[in-house]
Amino acid sequence: MTRPKWLLLLLVPLLANALVFAATGMAVSSDASRTLASPESFAAITDPVQRSAAYFTELGKVLQNPRCLNCHPAGNRPSQGDTMRPHQPPVFRGPDGMGLASMRCNTCHQGANFDPGRIPGHPAWHLAPIEMGWQGRTLTEICQQIKDPARNGGRTPEDLIDHIGADTLVGWAWHPGVGRTPAPGTQKEAGALVAAWVKSGAACP
Amino acid sequence: MRPSRRDFVKLMMASGIAVAVTPMARADAPTFASRETLPGRGVARPRLGRVDGVAKVTGAKLYASDFRAADMPGWPSQTAHALFVRSPDASHVYEGIDLDRLSLIAKPTVVVTAEDVARIGARVPEFYAGDLFCPVGKTPFFLGQPLALLIFASFDDFDRVRVALRDGNYLKFGAETGPTEGPNYGAFRFTRVAGPTPDGPDLYSPIQEGWVSPGFFESSGRPIWKPLPVAKGGEYVKGATFGDAIRAELDAPDPSRLVITQDFETQSIDPVFLEPECGLAWYDPSKRNLELVLGVQSPFEAASAIAFLLGEADADHKPATINAQFAHVGGGFGGKDHTPFSLYIALAALFLPGRPVRLAHDRFQQFQGGVKRHAFKMHSRIGVDRKSGLITGFAADHVLDGGGMANYSASVAVVGATGALGIYSIPKVDVTTVALHSRGVTAGSMRGYGTLQTMTAIESLVDEVCAALPLDPIEFRRRNALATGGRTMTGNPYSVSVRTPEILAKLEAHPIWRDRAIEKAAARPGFLVGTGVAVCTKDYGTGADCSLGRVEIDAEGRVSVHGDAVEMGNGIGTAIANRVAAHLGVVADRVGVSEIDAFDALGLFTSGDAYSTTQAAQDEAAKNPRWVPAISSATSASIGAHVGTQAAAEAARVLFRFGLWPAALAIWGIPQNDPRAKQWDEAFWQDGMLLMSGLSPLSLKAIAAKAHAMNGITGTMAHAFSRWAWAQATFTVGGEDVTADIDALAIRRGDGDFEPIERSAVAFPPADYNRIGTAFTSLCGTLVRIEIERATGIVRIAKAYSVLECGEALVPEVVRGQAHGGFAMGVGYALLETLPPFEDGPGNGQWNLGQYRIARASDLPVNDLEVEILPPLSPKEPPKGMAEVVMIPVVPGLLNAIFDATGHRFAALPVTAAQIKGVLA
Amino acid sequence: MTTLSLSVNGRALGPFEVRDDLTMNDFLREELGMTGTKFGCGAAQCLSCAVIVDMPDGSSHTNPTCVVPAVNFDGKAIRTIEGHAKDGVLTALQTAFIEHFSFQCGYCTPGFLNESQVLLERLEKTPVPRATLETVIAEALDGHLCRCTGYVKYHEAVRAVILAGADRYLI
Fold first, then answer.
1. pLDDT digits over B133-185, tens only?
2. ipTM tops the 0.95 cut
3. Label partner for B671 (CA 20 to 30 A): which of B1, B511, B649, B793?
4. Does domain C2-83 fall into CATH 3.40.30.10?
5. Mean pLDDT, residues B523-541
6. In this structure, are residues B332 and B568 in contact, taking their beta carbons and an 8 Å threshold?
7. Mutate to test the interface with A, among B159, B167, B844, B846 (most CBs of A within 10 A)
8. Are B754 and B748 in contact (CB under 8 A)?
9. CB-CB under 8 Å, B849 with A88
10. CATH topology of domain C92-169
11. What residues have CB less than 8 Å from B805, skipping those under 6 apart?
12. Where are the domains of chain C?
């Protein structure tokens, strides 16, 4: 399988990316941010720990995408939109992550996206628990959080493959409805990256 | 001749269309008029409260957006739906709508484009000069310019296409041309140089010399620009010479004087009235009658504009009659005053004859097509004598972004400029202003009307001066405040009370001000506390304000009132009812507002332009007893109390004096030659009973019954006109002369028809009062204490106090509510609201609330916002308009508080948390 | 197209065949002609469009109608502003809103009345301490936008009704 040119950037530290892109003349925001690389494309990384971390870095394009971050806030209020502005109307986590009594999440966010109202929806719409808050955290910190059963809802690494690769609320991120840019790649591709990461020892970048 | 503030359009009766209302009632269905006339006879309601209270708390059909064809007796029952298609682009040639692809979703029944408008011979009223639709092959002139109307027989089709157009790509654009340039909407220079003594004449002032404008604007050729009262050439040079001297003086180094320069920028914002613009219309080709239901602040103008639009249309598109009915409005704030929306409703009906059509904005479309507040760039310089703390000179240059259409831009520029001195008396002033065209969405009238921008700038600049001198901010204001009788920028004094010293005293004594140092020092860890003060004065009145009013009492003593003022939340219906109640003893149970058709018995006609007429022309026209300088004007936030209630109040006074009083005398058995017969001014009402010393109280019911039985006067109708003073006229009623602040009168006896009484004498305000900037004003001062969280920059308003004066408050709780609402709108303007001007802005059709933040209760000190209304100076002080002034001081108050807390003075709005956080870092 | 049956202000209505992408707001206003429920933004920001939904478990909440398809209300029981007053007799809240001059243009008023009504019913089941009342009211009403009033008199009126019934609503 051919290795796309832009994968070169994964072999160098993040800071050098700009130079590489300048050299290749490619813009970061075009193809690279909308797709997910397959695990096979990292085969050139010989060091297994580095390769494992590289899977997670690629997965980071999903985890740190607004579609995910908006509902993984560090505090008690979600953000909204591609610009991740504070959610309007003001809504709060509440005791169960599903909002306060006067404004439950599923009052507006019903079972499915409703495009005429430009409002996203899913039967289980709610905030990730606060221990899974990712906004403002580095990818390294998120990686450690996601591996920690005390902070990831008691999940084993294998559970994570299913959660990210198949859970339908997570899956919403790739079909967010009109007015919201989907997460990069597909949920299946994301799941493949998680699987590869777990199988390779779940190293953190 | 300077551009008028409110009504640029002449009445187009000459177009040959009779503009009138003929209610079409079915016995079994409520008429539109009955739904809009409140509270309604026999409707149970609380003793306290607005006349429209019950209707509004029960969800009754009231707003234009509530009505469909099925609600209109006599109309066909199915409603078709029309959809605006607007351009998100103003830099490429428009090549049409991809109707083939759009029709896969639903095929419109009718498409109306520029070609169709031209084909039928529609004329664009002067105020809206420009293309009603951008023609194919032309670059749209501005973002949001209408491209077409699509009309659908079924709501489902309409709805599907609405969403598809919003979310998809169905508009075709070709070559990139860049934005199209357009001429400026107007430019002015206001210069005043006081004479050596305050009582002596000014050396130069606009009211003495006429208003001037730099020569370049005349080359614009825009038809709304009328010639000035005096020729421009030499007079401009004279004024400009004085103006340049003022600037040179400010530039000259002088250690005895502090000079501060300020560059201040404000942003474009949206009025966000909660009811988007909409209307309903039906053209019946068999009768050639056009029916309309509209919700606008300017009913007379809307009807006139539609009449003009169609006045020379072809036979199929020119109605013989236009029947326009006007609903209560779900918020206006200026944004429903003189907008082109009504023209499109009329067009929609004409292109789908026989079928009622609804045209309504959703909120995306309202952002895209509704008028906005002007963004201002202001460069100002102020000179202050260090020793005395007195302002010696002020110069400013204002540049407004008027967006795509002229609308009210020239007028906003004028009012903003002449309001730029705020509450201060400044002996040397020179202000230039120019309103530019841009490809942005159209800017028009919005609460504050230019003075929100310019007074925010000066109150912030004064705060900077006080810090630099240094001088206590209240004391500085005390020393520099314009006093009653002092001359404004245009050279005339206000003709109403100027109560700045009382306002300042209240602010100074208030705990928020007194405790500011203590509170600042006691800020919690991680927080900063600051206090800010500002005082503003806002004119009310436009220089050609009209009021129509009609008052009737039936044999049971029940009162109905009709007026042309529009109810948009301002409480005008209740204010009119209260003012009438002072004369008649009870609050009316039928109050009709927004009516332009209930006054035909006066037989009024008008000619000329009230804003630019000469004294000779006015005197000549006034010889005809039915002539008035203007018939009906728009309702703006500040003229309701003073203007909107005037005709009904005077009509009620005449009705009492000549209808109820004679009936009461008859019941009491007091003959005409008895001295008590002349003492109508001594009688007063209590709980519906007329009291007069020494006589037994009479119920209104008994008096009314007697008046009817005597075939006495039981109804009166009046028109009033103000050009900074009410026109006055004398009428002979019941054999006696009465002079009132009205210029037309009609009376009704018993259950008969209204008959006009020709005035025997009239005194209209002089034509040269048109040189006055404003003569009426009211004041408001605001204190705010804020707390800023360092880590986030978020401002929390801990406490606030506003003190205002408005003469007689006709409905004090409405005044208080307006003060609360003005405060909230000011907070939004200062801290939350902003619209990018061009392609990223609302013209792209993608803006809604959420992205655009207006103040929520959580942004406001809802339980700690104190409003004090000063009692009138004298029982003779009439009501003053106040609904704009209560929005203004909170804005600079917040800026000054932010400076107090952070040491940083922001010079652009809004001031966001991110920006504050940035300067604290 | 989907079949929709529901109860509105105690009256069973339907079945209607409605388009799946028809909003509940348009169903109420265009199909049923019930325009007491308003349209302000279409983006769940202003809640002028909110109606009361009465759940089988006895709880009630307000729901925006502008971002929810009508078909999602199938089988539900809702109350709109038109159903508050009975035989012309206003509720305590409606009366308070008038007497306190709580609204001006009145366009947002139905939403505020629905929300306040739900609040009262919730407090009756679960009263709160007096000291928390202002916060409870603020939290309940903050989803509702008003452009005219600055909210002060709305909060004042709701507080007055609760204080007048302190034995029912407060601990």
1. 999 999 999 999 999 999 999 999 999 999 999 999 999 999 999 999 999 99
2. yes
3. B649
4. no
5. 97
6. yes
7. B167
8. yes
9. yes
10. DNA polymerase; domain 1 (1.10.150)
11. B497, B499, B502, B503, B778, B779, B869, B870, B872, B880, B882
12. 2-83, 92-169
